[in-house]
Structure formats: C-alpha cells, structure tokens
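My hope is that you will study the protein record below before we discuss the fold together.
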Amino acid sequence: MELPKLAIAALGGTVSMQARNAGEGVIPTVSGETQLASVPHLATFARVTVETLGLLPSASLDFGFLLTVLSWAQLQIKQGAVGVVLTQGTDTLEETATFFDYL
C-alpha cells in the first residue's frame, strides 16, 4: 500500500527561532528540513515533502507572501498531496488561517 503524500512548508516565526550567537536575540533561522528531521517517524505514516518558503517573523507575513504560499499549497494538492501543513509563528496564526479560509 502506497503511503499518502504530505506537503509541509516552513514560513518562519516562533517555531523557527534561534539565536545565531550567544547573548543575541532570537530570529527565524531553522529551516523546514531541520524541523522535519526532529520527527523522523513521520515518514512511516506518509511520503513527506518539505520546503522552506520563508524564514520570516510572524508580523512580516504580508498578503503577497501569503498568496504565494496559497499557490504553493494548491500546487501540492494538484500533485497528489492529501494534506498540507504550514509551520509559522504564533503571533499571526489566526490571521493566516482566516486569510486562507476566505480565499
């Protein structure tokens, strides 16, 4: 039995925050590929593809960027993905979900 395809895109935000140097503030730096590596067992449930579409702070997710993300997600579904997961920061999570829901 073939596993379902799951497409994951990293946008940045809280989940990707790290300090580049000791004593500095945190910024989005952790790629989607690195995030996926922390859950290796996911591959037993789905054929997972991951892309880092951006490493942006939540407040920087503007409409233009989100339209690009939406196009990417629609393409993934067209190419056979049964699910799309977006990782992003918590500051604008509801706004992003509402934006996609309206579209």
Notes: The mean pLDDT is 94. The two ends are 34 Å apart (CA to CA).
